[in-house]
Here is the input.
Amino acid sequence: MISTVLAQAAAGGSGILGQVFLFGSIILIMYFFMIRPQQKKQKESKKFIEEIKKGDEVVTIGGLHGKVSSVEGDTVMLELDRGLKVKVEKSAISLDFSKKPETKK
Here is the structure.
């Protein structure tokens, strides 16, 4: 009986290598299609927030469109209209909506 169990275990050994290869390829695909693009987007967003300066046209996550009138540490003073200013956190400014759409020539 023990020899039968050992023979079955030896025969199943080649399937384990295939499963490891399949599992490894799934992890690799997830990295290139999910994790890596997300890390790149976070890096771009962080760079955008750090480079905000006076005069930039931005959009907040809540949808407010305005022009940066001053930057003080982690807060930004947005001028929404003449005389109407709002203080918001830098993290509340959206990179996706603040980008100008690129026109193709």
In short: The beta strands are 57-59, 65-72, 75-81, 84-89. The first helix runs from residue 2 to 11. The chain has two domains: 1-51, 53-98.
